[in-house]
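Q: Got a minute? One more chain.
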Amino acid sequence: MRKFILLTIFVFTNIIFTVGQRSKHLTGYVKDSLNSPIANAMVFIDGKKTNGKTDAKGLFRVKYKKRPRIISFLSPTHGVDKMIYKGEKTVYFVYGKGSLKTKATGTQTKIVKTRTRRGNNREFLTIYDYFKGTVPGVVVSADNSVTIRGAGSFNASNEPLFVVNKTPVSKASIESIAPSNVKNIVILKGPEAALYGARGANGVIIITTY
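A: Always. Here it is, folded:
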């Protein structure tokens, strides 16, 4: 009888523990400052990568067992940003600007952004002139080789990955971009560039045009 009682208590305790550890779901929307949805942003909970990623509407849905404290996002076009979770059933997150410390990567991140109105930058003849004159951290040599200061790998080349309007392109392809047609540029390096795998080992220059 005593063994039966102990077994019953053990089973009941495990049932309570299992129920307490059952996964819950968190949904949310991620948008930029213009209220446009941000797609393909990876979702981190308390510094750990989840399987969640935002869709074309900026919507994500992830599972968690322990209530999150910090939710971080890593976007190929907007870099890294984070928020403190306050128990909302649905999260509405708008990307901020500037230097951010994120537990998703554990590093101090400087997301370099430039933004201009259409038709500006006419004083620059080439995209390389634009890099030299407006984009901090990008080094252009005399032969128009491009590198990102502080980014590099053991590869033979230190050339960064170029992404134009969300599509990776060759360095030759960016030469046809008129500086006056550049809407904004985002520079990623280190852990943030890891979103692009080995191709981002030397950093990433993301160009958006009008």
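A: The CA atoms of residues 13 and 189 lie 48 Å apart.
Q: Perfect, thanks.
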